[in-house]
Amino acid sequence: MSFFNSIGRSMSRAPRSTKRSPTPTSATFSPTESNYNNNSVPSSPVASPQTKPLYLCSPFVEAALVKGNFKTIVMLPKYVDIMEWVAVNIYDFYTNLNEFYGVLAECCTQQSCPTMSAGSSLNYTWINQDRKSVNLSAATYVDYVMSWIQTLLDDESVFPTKSGQDFAPSFPATVKHVYRQLLRVFAHLYHAHYHQILHLRSEPHFNSLFAHFLAFGREYELLEMKDIRGSSSAPVGIGALWEKWRDMGILEG
Ligand SMILES: [Zn+2]
């Protein structure tokens, strides 16, 4: 099943969101692009490169609410429009991740996370309106991402909710952008806040949410492997988690 092949090749570029984010200072930033930056060292309480991150260790890596492979959960139900299916799942991923972040937000501060870290040598940067790559604190970055997505979800021309309204041809490209940014929020939470997730005993729930997100993203070609793995000089921490779950049979190869 190819989401993108099913609707043609004409929408390879996402439209830039023209709506302003509810965050007062975020209007100067665009969440549509950002780059890897391995110049700075994350100061958040993370494992050193020599230490295996807790999310890769037993029993945490196996903790899940949903046992087995996610293939059947992500399959398009009979008689459901593929756009509708993608839209409703993105809404659910966003809502669930937003709730998790809301609980962890008090731990994600300017002091703990001065950058949007997602690996021992990886910090996501933001491209501002002057096309400059800037480092933001993780809290600010996540705030911009979530506000941007909320604005899109509220926009009937992007996520139509009334019968008879069609999805725009740009919808697949837009949701790909959304997916990429949501992946970064997951990547930061695993990298910088997994010990707090464990403290809350939420790792089965969080792992299942993320495995579902990965399986869905791969099924409908919303996620690129390079975004999951990162580059060799700045790997994404969760790239190893993806591989582990694939080897365990939770995710497709
Ligand atoms: Zn943080």
Question: How would you concisely characterize the structure shown here?
Answer:
This protein is mainly alpha-helical and 253 residues long. It is 42% helix and 6% strand.
Tell me about this structure.
Residues 1-45 are annotated as: Disordered. Helix 2 (82-104) packs parallel to helix 4 and helix 2 (82-104) packs antiparallel against helix 5. The chain has helices at residues 71-74, 82-104, 138-154, 171-199, 203-219, 225-229, 237-247; strands at 29-30, 36-37, 116-119, 122-124, 126-128, 133-134. Helices cover 42% and strands 6% of the residues. The two termini are 15 Å apart. A three-stranded antiparallel sheet has the order 1-5-6, with no helix packed on it. Strand 5 and strand 6 (133-134) form a beta hairpin. The protein has seven helices and six strands, in the order E-E-H-H-E-E-E-E-H-H-H-H-H. The site of zinc ion has 8 residues, from helix 4.
CATH class: Mainly Alpha
- Strand and helix order: EEHHEEEEHHHHH
How much helix, percentage-wise, in residues?
40-55%
**The CATH topology, please?**
Butyryl-CoA Dehydrogenase, subunit A, domain 3
* Biggest β-sheet strands, sense, barrel: 3 strands, antiparallel
Named CATH architecture: Up-down Bundle
Give the overall average pLDDT: 83
The rounded distance between the terminal residues' Cα atoms is 15 Å
Tally the beta strands. Answer: 6
Strand content: 5-15%
> Count of helices?
7
Structural class, from secondary structure content? mainly alpha
Can you say what the CATH homologous superfamily is?
A: MOB kinase activator
Shape category = globular
Low-confidence parts lasting 5 or more residues at pLDDT below 50?
Answer: 4-30, 32-47
Q: What small molecules are bound in this structure?
A: zinc ion
